[in-house]
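Q: I have three molecules that I believe assemble together. Could you output structure tokens for the complex as a whole instead of separate predictions?
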Amino acid sequence: MTTDEKHIEAQQEAKLFFSRFLLEWYHLQKRDLPWRRHRNPYYIWISEIMLQQTRVDTVIPYFNRFIEQFPTVEALADAPEEEVLKCWEGLGYYSRARNLQHAAKQVKELYGGQVPDDRDAVFSLKGVGPYTAGAILSIAFNRPEPAVDGNVMRVLSRYFRIEDDIAKGPTRVKMEKLAAELIPEGEAGSFNQALMELGALICTPKSPRCLPCPVMEHCAARLAGCETSLPVKTKAKPPRPEERLAALVEGRGEHAGRVLIRQRPASGLLARMWELPHWPAPPAEAGGARGALLPEAAALDRLRRSMSQAGILARPEGHWMAAEHTFSHIVWTLQVYRCREEAALPLAAESRAVYGAALVERGDSALGAESGAAHAGRGDSTLAAALEAQPAEDAPLALFDSGDAAADAADSGAQRWISREDMKNYAFPNVFLKLLNSYFDEQGT
DNA sequence: AAGACGGGGCA
DNA sequence: TGCCCAGTCTT
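A: Yes, here they are, computed for all three components at once.
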């Protein structure tokens, strides 16, 4: 027998060992999770979408609420989008929620409300890629398909000492091929979950717990002492900083006790979520330290102009607090200013057009009374009208690239005056949820 | 192939 | 506080 043949034989033995002992460990150690209590393909599907980029402990309460509110594919397909988004509030990557509902409509219309068990059909669902397709097919239908996520790539790269960069596309394909070979006959669902469970509980990114690992004896990385340097992965580039001025506008008169919020556009960052209005801060003065707080007067002036341009009748009064919001590609620093709504005064003819455009969206219709789609496509004309009607002494804001065209286009979106009670009807990103709660706490309302 | 797209846990 | 985690869609 040649050296190569011996190597192949040893490799084969390592694979058999791995599959057998991992599966045995899983049957003894698996966690009791809500989506493991039934083998309902809909539950499996929802859980897998939620588990993308999100840990199990975070997902559990969201999963339970979601299933309670949308118990079936049809319930999800027929729900108002705002309700789905509200149910996803705080979970992040909100396009997952939109895609999920789109896919529910696909399942309802194309497959009679039954999650398909066919590879091409599952893969064609919006929001379902190679990993999720494999997870649904194997866990819900016990089909021998690989389900390779970050946990699986970490486990396999260590056990087989694979040094390929897991951030590269071809590496995932290679891992899928390997993972498929490891699936024991008739055990696809349990085996794929076992692989992920090991990655989550034992073979963790930082300091893997090798001693209780069921497959440590034949782990190539452990034997070579290099388990903490695997997997190889190119690191992401740091998020770019972005300074923004936000307005917490306190209502007066009929809006007393309420604050102004607006809805973001239908696409892009935080699509269709609600927020406090905010705009790019002007670049800091030359000589000033990067990220330095803008002089109060300059910030107040800037905010006054931004609000005026957005058709918000309010006067900035002073700095309230700062908040930070980190995305994977941007870091927002929000300087929040308290502002007071101004009573509408008799308007010059040319100013009326500015305010009129924004007032169209005002009102207090209940959740679901309108969809963001109703506003799509209106933005340009409204903004153009506002710019054109800008009074001469209040020159249009200098243009500079804020990097968030979506947020800046939100000037033409829907606005609402809300109390703390009304917050339950709108979906907010976490940073605004925290700001609004702080504000209402301070007010004692 | 690279960038867009949130939020939380850990040392 | 800074570092790490990572599926799918879009360009």
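A: One point stands out. Chain A has a mean pLDDT of 87.
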